[in-house]
Amino acid sequence: MANCFCPFKNAMKKTTALLVVLFAISLTVFSQDAAIKGTVIDTSEKRNLSNAVIAVLRPADSVLAGFTRTDKAGQFNLQKLLPGKFILMVTRPAYADYFDRIEITKSSTVDLGAISLTLKSQLLQEVVVQHKLGAIRIKGDTTEYIADSFKLGAGATVEDLLKKLPGIQVDKDGKISAQGETVQKVLVDGEEFFSDDPTIATRGLTADAVDKVQAFDKKSDQAAFTGIDDGEKTKTINLQLKEDRKKGYFGKVELGSDANRYWNNNVMVNAFKGKRKFAAFSIMSNTGKTGLDWKEGMNYGANNNVEMGSDDAGGMYISFNGNDDEFGYGNYWGEGLPKGWNGGLHYSNKWKGDKIHLNSTYQYNKINTEAQGNTFSQYRLPDTILYVNDYGNSFRSRDRNRIEGLYEIQIDSFSSVKITAQASTGNNYGHSKFHQESLNSYGDTLSIIDRETTTDANNKNFNSTLLWKQKFKKQGRTISLAARQNYTEVASKGIFFSDNNYFRNNVLDSTKILDQQKGTDNITSVINSRITYTEPLTKRSLLEFNYSIDNNHRQSRIATFEKTAPTGKYEERIDSLSNEYSFNVLTQSGGINYRYAKPKRVNFSFGMNVSNAAFSRKDLKGDSTINYSFTNFYPQANLNWTMGGKGNLRFNYNGSTQAPSIDQIQPIQDITDQLNIRVGNPDLKQAFRHNFYLTFNSYKFLSERNIYVSLNMTATQHDFSTLNTLDLSTGRKTSKPVNVDGNYRINGYFYYGKKIKKLGFRAGVNGRFNVNHNTNFIDGLQNENDSYTFGAGPEFSYEKEKKFSIWLTTNFNHNVSKTSLRSDLVTRYWTQDHYVDANVHLPWKLEIGSSCNFNIRQKTSVFDKNNNSIRLNARLDRKLFKNDAARLRFSANDILDQNIGFNRNINSNFLSERTYDTIRRYFMLSFIWNFNKNGKPMDW
């Protein structure tokens, strides 16, 4: 009998086991229930929409995971959803469908906020006909431009595309500004692409290869991971390529010459296959279009054709056609006649489902520049004025080899490691001759100096970073470690000769000859690391704890020699001009931050860091050491508020310190320029800066109206300024750095643009202002300096596809500078910069284009020369091949031969105006070919 029930018993056991499993699964499902909620509104009538269908689909197979409808108030709450990634679809009759990707976490309710639907009739009327659907999109703090919404001619480059985008400006040197801020990085598909030279991407890639252009503030990798802002932001543009350009190859060839003096040749090849990218380029040019490292030049004040602003010393500057190329490698900003060579290779790839990522670049560049110019300067003292006239010529040659790489591995779904390394070597050779004359307020000669210098410097640099990121099963709990190392070595040797003649009552009084050899060795070594831990408090908030340690070591050796009588060689050491000095700063910092985030609505954070900086100064020659330390508090606060469809508001505050450079603290004189002697100050303290940043960004895609407003303020304690002492008998100025309080600067920017659909053109207006307050000392007297720059101007663009286009921008700027020691002398003047660019399509595949720069500067009582200029350029293109892939171009540069190299600087009581030679009129014949093969034969 028992045997008869065996099958039944076995079946009962299996059934019971199955029920237990099903019950466990049901418990798991119920325990992981999640939900989404939100409101659906009409974009045009601003009313809530009832009976709209809300569907959640699985992205892998589009299977329905859940759906509901909006109630009478337009609201919905869809519950009992499993965690994961889904596609959200919102539909309603007569409205365009809405799609978005969402991620739902366990046991949470995702608030999607307001979802806007647009009537199909309105889309057909205002968007489809104009081909402008979503031309600009605002996604948090990212502004995204759809490239095909902005019509360009065949063969247009990315740089041509950027010039068309509202809120983005590109100057003649390729420097890019977005929303009033300088763009420092240009990425391709989110990756570095010849990172130190963004013009390679903007001038080498064609616009038709780009799907989207994204402008945003790139955070550090660690800040992006934790969500806590660490103050590191880089204005960045990302070029997202079209999918069909990620397979096959494409590129550009340009060969041009005037058969006499000027030549401009460049080649770029890109071969993409899925995630694998290979690129190579070569540039040879003496027209100034070298494409060399404008980003590095921006760190030292490089500027566009006309730029007004305020400098760190409380001064105001205006420059035309570039400025002195005193720093960096391969920078050309308009001064002199350049010859440039530039080439590089790039390779990147991703494997194993993007878990392994490699990015590498090699680049070589060289530039030779011959220049000559003259500078007129004025020193305004409490009871007199000094004048200095300077005439000179120079030759500079610079070359550099640079290699960099990135390796990133996703160890598992919770952890990853990223390693970067970069190394470079370079040489900088220069030879210059100057003739200087100083005069007093009566026009009497005080000194005449002729000097000649030759320098030869070699440098080495290596830096690397390591970032480890670890997530835990509990959402929001993370730990990350960031480490960074940098080593730089610069060794230079130079000959300095100066013939100094000093006068009294216009009669030669004394003569002094300086003939010296100077050798300098500078080493900088920086090692720092930061560990960060985040712990969730609720579903939307967390705490961040961080600790960092930073060691910054700098060492400088200066050895100056003069000739000995018997041998005529530089063997006699000048102890007063020689020194060996080291400067070390060890900083330890710890802090805590609170962060709250509501998706698509608002996120904010605030917190405090405390640090101790231990300074050690060593005079290696004098065998003396001075140790001291500072304790600082670093408050920080961030707010990012997405105001529905109205725009995005961002606020940021952070405190930061800046240590003095070793040149500023080294107690030794620099007498290279006998009329401008510099001496270090070993008693300098570190500066502390309070940085405030506020922006508002809004775009309405139906009316194509966009607004951008930004306001920046920096107030500095113990700021670095100068103590100037002037010798009225010789016209010599001696400068020493000192700390001051009360310095501040305020910058504002505004842009408003709109498509005037009835007339078919786009118009905009921008405005800006700079306010700068600075204190320095002149002959022991405190001097308060204030400078102001106010500017505004409209822009206008109109185009008929395949017929013509015109683009016009204009800027008016008013500049004011005053000082407390000479309140009777206030400098005021206007400047204007007008630019127009026009293109006309003609029959027989001809296209004619012209651009014109009008630079107008008001004369002043000090600068009464006419340096206004009109720079007119023109070109005639004949398109070749069936798909217009190539063109033969005849171009004319500076037709009126009025291009003037000009720079004006107003700094406290010091005013100067510099003119120099630059590239002027030339004519060129060029062949330009944009080739492209994406699995298909090219159409010839």
From TrEMBL:
Q: Which InterPro entries match?
A: Carb-bd-like_fold, OMP_b-brl_3
Q: Note whether Signal occurs among the keywords.
A: yes
**The Outer membrane protein beta-barrel domain, residue ranges:** 470-801
Q: Which residues form a coiled coil?
A: none
- Give one GO molecular function term: carbohydrate binding
Its signal peptide is 1-34
Keyword Nucleus assigned: no
SUPFAM superfamilies attached to this UniProt entry: Porins (SSF56935), Starch-binding domain-like (SSF49452)
Q: Which UniProt keywords apply?
A: Signal
Name of this protein: Outer membrane protein beta-barrel domain-containing protein
Q: What is the lineage of its organism?
A: Bacteria, Pseudomonadati, Bacteroidota, Chitinophagia, Chitinophagales
